[in-house]
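Same chain as my last thread, 339 residues:
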Amino acid sequence: MEFSILDRIVAWVPGRWIRAEKCLGESEPYLRDHFPGTPVLPGVLILEGMVQAGRALVDLSEPGPRRRLAVDAFRGVKFMRFVQPGERLEICCQLMDFRKPEGPVEMLCQGEVAGRMVVSARIRLKVRNSNHGSAEETGTFKNREAVPFCASPQLVQLGSVQNESHGGEVFRWLWIDRFTQFQSGVWAEAYKEVPSASATSGLGRINPQGLSATFILEGMAQTGGLLVFDAVGFRLSPIMARIAQAEFYFEPRPGENLVYRASLDRHGPEGAAVTITSHQAEQLQAKAEILFALISNGADAQPRVDPAIFYRMMTELGAFDVPTPGRPIPLSNHTAAPY
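reply #2:
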C-alpha cells in the first residue's frame, strides 16, 4: 500500500505498544459516499489504521531487514460509535506475540475519540509470501537503523490522505463492481476486478496495489449489507457493527476478479448476520462473519443515515438487473427512496 491513513505516531515502546492519531478532515474524498449528508470515517479504514500502526511498531521494534506483513485475520471486531469530521481518532495497538521471525504477529487494538471507545479488535498479521502479491511498500520506517530504538514519547509525522483527483474522475466508495446474482432475502453474488499495482486511485495517495485485506473486507461488507437492506424492505440502514472473524488465505492476483458470495444467516430487531466468502478462480481467498446493525432514519438516530444511500448503491451496482429468479423488486416511482 502506498498511503497512510494515519496522521502521526505519538508514542511507542518497542516490542510492546504504539499509539497513533487520525484527525478526520471534512474534505477527505471517501466522505462523499460514506455517507452523503452524514459523513463518517469508514470502519475498514479504522482497521487499516490499526494494521498500519501494528506494522510500524514491529518495524520500530526489530533491527535488521523489514518483515513484509499482510493481514491474516480480524477477530472480535466491535464498532461502538461513528467517527465524524472534526474528531480525532486515537489508535492504540498492543503486541501479544511477534518474536518468531517467520511467525504471526498478534495484537490487541482499540480506537478512541475523546476517551470514548470507538472500535476494538484483535488482529493477526502474517509474513507476506515474497513470491506473491505486490512489491515492497515504500514506508516511513524503511531505514530502521535511523529510528530511535527506545521508549518514546516522540512524534513521527506521517502522510495523510489528500483529496487529489486523477484525470478528473470522482472517487466513489464502492468496492464491488457489479452484482451478478441476487436471490432476494437469501444470498447474493458480486465481483470486483483486482487492480494492478500500477493502477491509480482517486482516494488521495491510496493505491490499492492489488487490494488490501481491509478493502476486500469492505467489498464483502457491501455485498452482504445490500443483501440485508433488501431483506428488510429498503426501510432500515445496515451498518457494520461486529465482525466475529474475517480470515484471509492469500493475496489476490491483479487483473483477475474476486467473487464475493454473501449468505443471509438470520435477521431480526437486533440486527442481521451474514456469512461472506471471497473466491478467485474458485479458490477460497477470504471468509468473514459480519453482524449488521439496522438503524432507522428517525429524529432520535445519532447520526442519521438515510436508507436511500443504500438503494442508490443497489441501483448503480445492478442488483435489480441480474437474471437470477427471486431478484429484488425495485420500488415503484411513487414510493422510490429519494436521492
